[in-house]
Design brief:
Elements (H helix, E strand, L loop, with lengths): L2 E2 L29 E2 L1 H9 L1 H8 L9 H16 L9 H18 L1 H4 L5 H18 L12 E9 L5 E11 L5 E7 L9 H19 L5 E6 L4 E5 L3 H24 L45
Helix pairs in contact: 1-2, 3-4, 3-6, 4-6, 7-8
C-alpha cells in the first residue's frame, strides 16, 4: 500500500461527473435507515458511541482541532473557485480569516472556542501551517476538480441507504475517477491503514453502485504531516466492502432490537465527549425509548 510524500506529477483533471452528485433530500422527505462511513466507524469503534450519536443525538461541542479541520476544508473548497493561476499559498492564506469569520458567524460555539484574540491568532497560525503543507503535496493550479464537498447516496437492494460527503472528486480526461479526502489529523500507523481506507472504500462502493464504474484511485491526504496514502481498488475490494457494510448493518439492527448498545473501551475513550455517561466510567446513559416506541436509525443528513 504505497505512501508517498508528494504528488508533483499529478495529471490534469477536469469536470465530468456532475451526474454523480445527488442533492440532499428535503427535510420533509421520508427517511429510511441510512449509514455513513463516519457512523459505521462509530459502531465498529463502540456501539454505545453509535447510539449516543444516532439514537440519542447528543450534542457535541466543537474543539479547536475539529474547528481547524472544518476551516481548512472550507478554505480548500474556496481555493478552487479561483482561476487556476491564482491558486497559490498566498491566496489560500488570504482566505483563512474571511472563511473563519463566516463559519464563526454561522455557529456561535466556534466563536466561543477562544478566550482572546491572541489565542485565536495562534490557532489561525496552526491552520496556516496545515494549508502551507498542502502545497507541498500537490499543485492546485494543475487541477480542476469535478466536484467538491459532494453529497452522494445510493440505496442497496436491502433498502439501506449509504450516504456521505466526499471532499473532492477528480476525473481524468480518459474518465478515470479519483476520490480525494483531506485529513488534518495524524496519519495512521501502517497497521491501521486498512481502517483509514474503509471510509474511502465506502465512498467508492457508493459511486460504483451509482455509475457502474470502479474509481481508479482512492487518495487520503494527511495535510499536517505531508503524507499521501493511495489505494487502487478493484471490483473484489468493493464487493468485500459491501458484504462488510451489510454485516455491520445486521449487527446494528440486532443491537437496536435488543436495546443492547454495549460500550467497547479503548484508548479512544479519553477523547470521547460522552465519557461521563458511559457505564464503563460510572456513568448512566439516557433512557432508551420504551418498548413499542420506534427507534430511528436514520442519520442526520448533515453528518
Amino acid at each position: 500500500m504505497p505512501r508517498l510524500a508528494a504528488n508533483v506529477g499529478a495529471l490534469l483533471y477536469r469536470c465530468a461527473v456532475e451526474e454523480m452528485v445527488l442533492e440532499v433530500a428535503e427535510e420533509s422527505a421520508p427517511h429510511g435507515p441510512s449509514l455513513s462511513p463516519s457512523r459505521a466507524a462509530d459502531f465498529m469503534t463502540c456501539p454505545l458511541l453509535y447510539r449516543f450519536r444516532v439514537i440519542d443525538r447528543l450534542p457535541e461541542p466543537p474543539t479547536a482541532a475539529t474547528a481547524r479541520g472544518t476551516l481548512v476544508h472550507a478554505v480548500l473548497e474556496k481555493l478552487f473557485d479561483l482561476p487556476a493561476a491564482d491558486r497559490t499559498p498566498q491566496a489560500a492564506r488570504g482566505l483563512l480569516t474571511p472563511e473563519w469569520d463566516r463559519l464563526a458567524a454561522a455557529e456561535p460555539d466556534l466563536a466561543a472556542l477562544f478566550s482572546d484574540d491572541a489565542e485565536r491568532t495562534d490557532w489561525l497560525a496552526s491552520a496556516t501551517a496545515i494549508l502551507d503543507a498542502y502545497f507541498t503535496l500537490e499543485d492546485p493550479r494543475r487541477l480542476e476538480p469535478a466536484e467538491r464537498e459532494c453529497y452522494v447516496e445510493v440505496t442497496l437492494e436491502s433498502g439501506l441507504r449509504l450516504r456521505g460527503y466526499i471532499d473532492r472528486l477528480d476525473v481524468a480526461p480518459g474518465g478515470e475517477i479519483r476520490i480525494v479526502d483531506y485529513k488534518t489529523g495524524r496519519a495512521p500507523r501502517e497497521a491501521y491503514e486498512a481502517s483509514a481506507l474503509f471510509q474511502m472504500k465506502f465512498y467508492a462502493l457508493v459511486l460504483w453502485r451509482l455509475r457502474g464504474q470502479v474509481p481508479r484511485l482512492l487518495q487520503l491526504m494527511y495535510l499536517a504531516e505531508g503524507e499521501i496514502l493511495r489505494y487502487a481498488p478493484d471490483e473484489s475490494d468493493l464487493l468485500a466492502t459491501e458484504r462488510k457494510v451489510a454485516a455491520l448493518w445486521q449487527a446494528i439492527e440486532r443491537a437496536r432490537a435488543a436495546g443492547d448498545w454495549r460500550p467497547r473501551p479503548s484508548r479512544l475513550c479519553d477523547w470521547c465527549n460522552h465519557k461521563a455517561l458511559c457505564p464503563e466510567f460510572g456513568g448512566t446513559p439516557p433512557p432508551l425509548p420504551q418498548p413499542g416506541q420506534p427507534v430511528s436509525l436514520s442519520e442526520n443528513p448533515l453528518d
